[in-house]
Amino acid sequence: MDSQSTNWSRRRAIAAATTLPWLAQLPTAARAAAPGATMQAWPLSAPKRTGIHDVAPAPDGGVWFSAQRSGHLGWFDPKSGRTELIALGAGSSPHGVIQGPDQAAWLTDGGQQAIARVGWPDRQVRLFKLPEGTPYANLNTCAFDGDGDLWFTGQSGVVGKVALKTGAVTVKDAPRGRGPYGICATPAGDIWYCSLAGSFIAQIDRKSGESRIVEPPTKGQGARRVWSDSMGRIWVSEWNSGNVSVHDPRARIAGGLWKTWKLPGSGPRAYAVYVDEKDKVWLSDFGANAVVRFDPASESFESWPHPRESANVRQILGRPGEVWLPESGTEHIAVMRTA
Questions:
Q1: What would the CATH number be for the domain defined by 216-305?
Q2: Domain residue spans in the chain?
Q3: The pLDDT of residue 283 is above 50
Q4: Residue 163, class by beta-carbon neighbours within 10 Å (0-12 exposed, 13-18 middle, 19+ buried)?
Q5: Which of 14, 154, 279, 327 is the most buried (most CB within 10 A)?
Q6: Distance CA 280, CA 293 (A)
């Protein structure tokens, strides 16, 4: 087995080890049934409004979330419905959160102009500040490459890296200025990001930090988030166009390097995109107030409306059998169970 396949298999094994069993519905949960998946949701029990934004499965079976309004890393326990808040520092306003290879929570903290690491389970906070004199970056999201370094985006027009061996933080201007938004790693450890304002996706040269732009076929589409499938294809949620598209960096596919599909409904607004362990593509649709699943094999969509108005799911992340949804508009956290 080559190193790429070994790396991908290792990641899946780690994810599989943290899979939660099916849980009984709590009295406060809202659930909607549809073929192939069920939705369960809980109101956050935090003492203050958190401004839940992004979400990531934690290694202990819980779920982390970025509390953008209150300045915390949130931890939610699906078994008890309990919420815990870990303060990140004065002025904190975190946007993205992911689990690192060290099983810590890593956050992009625009309020502190820093990348925050929260050790788990010790809950120790460490900040990696952007270089002195860096203009306000409006930090967005982050991803680890195949070498273990962390790359991040800033909507003000920057991409950057935290070199984990040294702790050094470097920042580069992104092409075309403001807009860098979602970011992801492929199974090979390459890093791709998208620009919402620039309407493009780009691959980062991991040695130089420079960006190689790849133009989507729909002009002005508003590429908002990106995610890789198991084959290294880059899936893109297009906010302005309401499309989901896929770019294959390896070889030409039918119709060229790109394929594009319109989400169902009259006015879709695709925000988040996430590809699960079965290579099914999940999206949040602000226009329909729904979570959508796309099957690339059949080129078909399924949709689950949220029972609350303006759920506003801004990120989707999961582990085998579970797809987690932070409802930023309702202070709920939800899961689609597919096992």
A1: 2.40.10.500
A2: 30-129+307-339, 216-305
A3: yes
A4: middle
A5: 154
A6: 7
What three-state secondary structure class fits 11? helix
Q: Do domains 30-129+307-339 and 216-305 have the same CATH topology?
A: no
Residue-level length of the chain: 339
Least confident of 216-220, 248-252, 266-270: 248-252
Task: Please tell me the distance from the alpha carbon of residue 1 to that of residue 8, in angstroms, as a whole number.
Answer: 11
Chain-centre distance for alpha carbon 85: 20
Residue 48 confidence (pLDDT): 85
279-297: average pLDDT: 98
pLDDT of amino acid 21: 28
Torsion of the alpha carbons at 328, 60, 291 and 255, rounded to the nearest 10: 120
CA distance 112 to 89: 8
Beta bridge partners of 144: 150
Average pLDDT, the chain: 90
Q: What is the C-alpha separation between 107 and 163, in angstroms, rounded?
A: 15
Would you give the DSSP letter of residue 214?
Answer: E
Question: CATH 3.40.50.2020: does it fit domain 30-129+307-339?
Answer: no
Tokens read off for 324: 């987690």
